[in-house]
Design goal:
Strand order of the largest sheet: 1-2-3
Structural class: mainly alpha
Shape: elongated
Protein name: Peptide zinc metalloprotease protein
Distance between the termini: 41 Å
Keywords: Membrane, Transmembrane, Transmembrane helix
Number of helices: 12
Radius of gyration: 27 Å
Order of helices and strands: EEEHHHHHHEEHHHHHH
Helix content: 55-70%
Number of strands: 5
Length: about 400
């Protein structure tokens, strides 16, 4: 069987630095980093050469033998080797085969074209000028309380945030479709919350520079969403300068959108911007390596270096990058605390003050009492669900740990 050529799927070859190449199947999102000589072997196998022919070529070219059968086995594990009997079942449902048509690619290209960028810049600049010149339009924690009913605030914020997140993830998807990738948007749930999830299928199969925009597209979407809300609020101003009900809602949602944008800058939490940094630095495990470096420093500082993580398999370059990134992880905690104190706590305190005031009246004929009671019950139910699921998961891990060991 050695004389039979190895059948390979359509593969992508993308240079990753000076001495590595990312090879992968975009249709199933399977990628791996290979050294240049191994990538050259894969290319010859893909060209129809048999294993003995490639082995002879490698010995002649590099002056030493290579374990080509072992490399072929690795290709099988990555599902790069094509088996005609399994072709109909190889690609998961919903994924477009490599080279197949991609819907919405034209829309993605239009959405990130130069004319579109000019329109985006004009919209954001207009919103900034409006907010700078009109205090009533400036997003702030107090703008979240656009209604006297806490239940109305909760429902509107839930719907507005859901729409904003769908808009955010949709930009990620279209940025991938722009490159011809079968990226997709799905709706799932975490605990009792509905979430939108983007899968950028095949992103590792495009040049590194082209991966940045799909990661940043969500931030672009958030900036446009917030700017659009501020401009919409400006249209709802009265002759006296006051903002109407719709405008107040828009300003409140704009503030929450800006909070989401600020959260993306906490790169240590592996947000969209973290993947931009990891992509630019060519270190996909940057966060994990940085945390291991911090643990190593801690255990060495307390005199127990034997407990430090093993970094023997990590390149010197990645270790240098991890050491430089480690302070970002440390400072990230302080930045998170600052964001919570300055951006989230004022909203929570305002909510609690209104809640306490309404419940403190004790008048059952006061509609604000029942409104506040229902709003408080909804919040407590979510917290109880979160605690319950957390405890359940911990108990499950505790029960399965001895078995796994």
């Amino acid at each position: 069987m050695d004389d039979v050529p190895i059948l390979l799927h359509e593969l992508t070859f993308v240079p990753e630095g000076e001495d590595e190449i990312v090879i992968g199947r975009a249709d199933i999102d399977s990628f791996a980093v290979f050294p240049l000589d191994a990538a050259a072997v894969v290319r010859r196998l893909q060209g129809g050469h048999t294993v003995p022919e490639v082995s002879h070529w490698y010995l002649t070219t590099y002056g030493e033998p290579a374990d080509i059968p072992d490399l072929v086995e690795t290709l099988r594990e990555l599902r790069f080797v094509r088996d005609p009997a399994d072709e109909d079942h190889d690609a998961p449902d919903g994924r477009v085969p490599s080279g197949g048509p991609v819907r919405w690619q034209a829309l993605g290209r239009a959405l990130f074209s130069w004319p579109a960028w000019l329109l985006y810049a004009a919209l954001v600049a207009g919103a900034v000028l409006l907010a700078a010149g009109t205090p009533q339009l400036r997003p702030s924690p107090g703008k979240v309380f656009f209604s006297s009913s806490l239940v109305v605030i909760e429902l509107v914020v839930f719907a507005g945030q859901l729409l904003g997140v769908a808009w955010h993830e949709g930009f990620h998807v279209l940025a991938g479709r722009r490159l011809g990738l079968p990226s997709r948007l799905s709706i799932g749930r975490r605990l009792s919350f509905v979430v939108f999830e983007t899968t950028l299928v095949g992103l590792m199969g495009v040049p590194r520079g082209k991966r940045v925009l799909p990661f940043c597209a969500g931030l672009v979407a958030d900036a446009l969403f917030a700017a659009g809300l501020v401009c919409a609020a400006a249209l709802d101003r009265t002759a006296g300068g006051a903002v109407g009900p719709f405008g107040r809602v828009a300003c409140g949602l704009a503030y929450l959108t800006l909070l989401r944008m600020a959260w993306q800058f906490l790169a240590y939490m592996e947000t969209d911007l973290y993947y931009v940094v990891a992509t630019v630095l060519r270190c996909p495990d940057l966060h994990r390596l940085a945390r291991e470096q911090l643990r190593s420093r801690f255990w060495r500082a307390v005199g127990r270096p034997q407990r430090a993580p093993d970094s023997s398999g990590v390149t010197d370059r990645d270790l240098r990058l991890a050491r430089r990134y480690a302070p970002v992880v440390v400072l990230g905690g302080a930045l998170t605390l600052g964001l919570v104190l300055l951006g989230v706590v004022p909203v929570l305190l305002g909510f609690a003050a209104r809640l306490a005031h309404a419940l403190g009246t004790g008048r059952t004929d006061d509609p604000h009492l029942w409104d506040s009671a229902f709003a408080a019950s909804a919040i407590l139910a979510q917290l109880a669900l979160l605690v319950g699921v957390t405890v359940r998961d911990r108990r499950r891990r505790a029960r399965t740990a001895p078995t796994a060991a």
